[in-house]
Automatic annotation (TrEMBL):
Organism lineage: Bacteria, Pseudomonadati, Pseudomonadota, Gammaproteobacteria, Alteromonadales
Catalytic activities: 4-amino-4-deoxychorismate = 4-aminobenzoate + pyruvate + H(+)
Gene: pabC
Keyword Amino-acid biosynthesis attached: no
Entry keyword Phosphoprotein: no
Cofactor(s) needed for function: pyridoxal 5'-phosphate
Organism: Pseudoalteromonas distincta
Quaternary assembly: Homodimer.
Family recorded in the similarity comment: Belongs to the class-IV pyridoxal-phosphate-dependent aminotransferase family.
Enzyme Commission no: 4.1.3.38
GO molecular function: 4-amino-4-deoxychorismate lyase activity
Top EC category: lyase
Listed pathway(s): Cofactor biosynthesis; tetrahydrofolate biosynthesis; 4-aminobenzoate from chorismate: step 2/2
Protein name: Aminodeoxychorismate lyase
UniProt keyword list: Folate biosynthesis, Lyase, Pyridoxal phosphate
Length: 271
């Protein structure tokens, strides 16, 4: 049965969060960010699946989606093109890191402006360099979008000195994992592949939706696997699939990349 102790806070209505909240103190929680178009959440089924998986793997009580979805509908009914952020914490309680005996989940809902540069990026593509910040391995958290995002903060900080739109983030074995806030996938000989995310990284909603449409191979990926590909994309649920224009010194034709992906999707749709 869903946990009845569930507090939903609409952040944009001047509500406050307790200073004792475990999400604030320990990063004990998870979140998802979704694109809202004309009062509808895109890829909602995948965002919902993400929230369910995070709750299960982190040992949270079952979320009450009836009340959550009702509150979301109220918050986004006037949204034409916005971003919905759903942030879930374990609430207050427990001694130190220890879990509370009874969990009162806190859910924060925020309606944010849609990033103004995303539309231009989709058209012109992105230039990538390799981040000097590498991701540590933690299989228990791999794939999840938890509140512990300090590695990504450091990645963004390092990007301030790099001449690029985004970066490739590697692990300590020099496997490609993701971009700073997006997944990576590539096409080679009409086959789609993406980094295996069994030790670190986030399994994104757009990537999950792409797997519904195309056969996608998850495997260990090196930088040279991408530079030798026919097309490379970064993707997330807000901007969709954005072609990569350059990786370090390797240049791609973004028009060809768009055409190649469109052709593959059309071919699968016919099957």
């Amino acid at each position: 049965m869903p946990n009845k102790m569930q507090t939903i806070i609409a952040v944009d209505q001047n509500s406050t969060l307790s200073t004792r909240d475990r999400g604030l103190n320990y990063g004990d929680g998870f979140f998802t960010t979704a694109k809202v178009v004309n009062g509808q959440v895109q890829y909602w089924a995948h965002h919902k699946a993400r929230l369910i998986e995070c709750a299960q793997r982190l040992g949270f009580p079952e979320l009450d989606f009836n009340s959550l979805e009702n509150q979301i509908a109220l918050q986004i009914k006037a949204a034409s093109l916005n971003v919905l952020k759903i942030l879930v914490t374990r609430g207050e309680g427990g001694r130190g890191y220890g879990l509370p005996s009874e969990c009162n989940i806190t859910i924060l809902l925020s309606i944010l402006d849609y990033p103004s540069n995303y539309e231009a990026l989709v058209k012109k593509g992105v230039n990538l360099e390799i981040s000097p910040i590498k991701l540590a391995a933690q299989p228990y958290l791999a794939g999840l979008k938890t509140l512990n995002r300090l590695e990504q903060v450091l990645v963004k900080k390092a990007m301030q000195t790099q001449n690029c739109d985004d970066v490739l983030v590697l692990d300590y074995n020099n496997n490609v994992i993701e971009a700073s806030a997006a997944n990576i996938f590539a096409i080679k000989n009409k086959c789609v592949f993406t980094p295996l995310l069994d030790e670190c990284g986030i399994k994104g909603v757009y990537l999950q939706s792409l797997c519904d449409k195309l056969p996608v191979e998850f495997k260990r990926v090196k930088v040279e696997d991408l530079t030798q590909a026919d097309a490379v994309f970064v993707c997330n649920s807000l901007m969709g699939a954005v072609p990569v224009k350059r990786i370090e010194q390797q240049v791609f034709n973004t028009d060809d990349s768009h055409a190649l992906l469109t052709k593959l999707l059309a071919k699968e749709a016919e099957c």
